[in-house]
């Protein structure tokens, strides 16, 4: 039997439909909400990224506009804080010692409310690993503080709590792998979307890094323009700038500024012997030692008792350094510092497997009301340095008025000498030189003359060489004067020879002319060529010319001295070592340099009554005879001296007793005592 389907009650079926429908509606609503949420999130993300893009655009513009970090940082902090709704943002620079130092740039929309935290942050330094900035520095990546109150490693927790700060973050600003800056931000709420924060702040940091890179490039350019590339010290330009500024700052009494001019002794020899690379090493090491000495004095150690004076050490030329001391409480510091610099160079410097020693000559000048410019001060320090150097052993000389007066008179003398050269104010005197043992009845036979220069000054009359030769040497004028002497003396001798030959003198009896040659003149590269030209032009026989030099030439340049002596001797010219016994009297010069004659200095003859002097004279005579040198005794003032010297075997002599230096006519008339004209 077929069973009928029992219909469900209508209400029940309806309830199920409603249920289903509701579920459907619910699902549909959920789907719609989801779709809406997705759409809204997409929109918000789009909006956020647009806002972020706009922010980054503003930061980039700011970075492009800014000349240096300090120009950019305030604006960048403000932009980020406003964008993130953060309470406080600040920045730190990384210093040379591996610490982060607050650059006192910060932003807060409510500075009054943030006061405790700002105060605890400004002018603050963090070591690597210390506090939030220190951790960023150590790890080179961002750090977060989510709950400031609970963060035990947060040094400014108390201040942050007072300001209602809840969270913080720190970011490195990197150039390559190097952290150059740390950014730090604080918020009163939680920092939730860390990815977005990271993205934004990292991009802002990249822009700041660009600014710092540009700042560095510009600083490097400026540094290079103002510093010496080899030693890294300030150069002349920077020194001048600082010296002028210090001079302008001087108080009414104009005291407190000192200039030290320092020159290395023997530096040229190091360059010549070991090469320029060795010279560079010496300069770099010298600069380093000087810096240490100055830093130790001017930096911390003495600050307590002596107000902090300043020092600028500069390399201004090859081996020349200058120190400008500013705000000096006591002038004695300059001398003490100079002594310390000399001391610092006492330890030898290692170059090319050897150790070299360098000395110093230091000149000091102190400011006073007498100076109108700092350049004058510098010139006086220079002068004092030359004074120190001229002593031969370096050391320290402080400029004084006496030194200044001497310089002024030397400069005036130099100017006058220039006029004298132009106006031919010089004249030669001739002092006869005799063979002590020859001649009938013991009377000496005249063998030659020494040419001795005199300056026929328009006002002062005849000036002796001792009064102007040193100035002529110092000013380099001796070379011009000496050339004139050489030519004039040879001309005079050629005239005399012509006269004597006309009177039947035998060529072997013609007198010789002895000419003094200054070291500067002798060591001129063109000297021997000049001698040769003068000999040819004047026609005086080379063997009747004698060149007198002092040991000075051999000390300056023994090799060249030897070459020149050998060259002139090869033409027959004779050579004479003048003033023997007064200088170093090194036997090695006598042995190694080709001299024909040795002149015993007149100081030994003047003290001949002293047995010691007689012993020295005897020793010199022995030495000369062993080395095959003839000897001329200078400065014979009495007959006794002449007789003693003759007795001791001294061959030749010269002196007031035998004949004073005389003008040409009077001196040459000695050859014919009965008178030139009557004898003709
Ligand atoms: P010197 O070459 O040793 O010349 C000898 C000096 O001794 C001369 O002085 C001469 O006048 C002086 N004299 C000679 N006999 C006696 C004496 O018995 N007693 C005393 N007390 N002095 C005596 P002068 O002419 O004043 O020259 C001094 C120095 O100047 C010379 O010393 C020489 O070094 C230098 N000198 C002179 N003329 C020239 C020159 O033309 N060129 C260069 N470079 N130097 C020169
Ligand atoms: Mg002489
Ligand atoms: Mg002499």
Summarize the structure.
This protein is an alpha/beta fold and 680 residues long.
Verbal overview:
Helices cover 51% and strands 20% of the residues. With 680 residues, it is α/β, with parallel strands linked by helices. The protein folds into three domains: 65-226, 2-Layer Sandwich (Beta-Lactamase), CATH 3.30.450.40; 236-399, Alpha-Beta Plaits (2-Layer Sandwich), CATH 3.30.70; 425-666, EAL domain (TIM Barrel). The strands form four sheets. It has an eight-stranded mixed beta barrel with strand order 14-15-17-18-19-20-21-22, surrounded by four helices. Strand 5 (167-175) and strand 6 form a beta hairpin. The N and C termini lie far apart (194 Å). 35% of the residues are buried. The model is unreliable at 300-307 (pLDDT under 50). One magnesium ion (MG) binds at residues 578-579, 599, 634. The site of one magnesium ion has 4 residues, from loops.
Q: Give the tally of structural domains.
A: 3
**Into which percentage range does the β-strand content fall?**
15-25%
Which CATH class of the largest domain applies here? Alpha Beta
Q: Supply the helix-strand structural class.
A: alpha/beta
Bound molecules: ligand C2E, magnesium ion
What is the name of the CATH superfamily of the largest domain? EAL domain
Count up the helices: 24
User: How many beta strands in the DSSP annotation?
Assistant: 23
Which fold name corresponds to the CATH topology of the largest domain? TIM Barrel
Which range best describes the helical content: under 10%, 10-25%, 25-40%, 40-55%, 55-70% or over 70%?
A: 40-55%
Main sheet: strand order = 14-15-17-18-19-20-21-22
For the biggest sheet, the summary is: 8 strands, mixed, barrel
- Cα end-to-end separation: 194 Å
Low-confidence parts lasting 5 or more residues at pLDDT below 50? Answer: 300-307
* pLDDT averaged over residues: 91
What is the architecture of the largest domain at the second tier of CATH?
Alpha-Beta Barrel
What Rg do the Cα atoms give? 46 Å
What's the shape?
Answer: rod-shaped
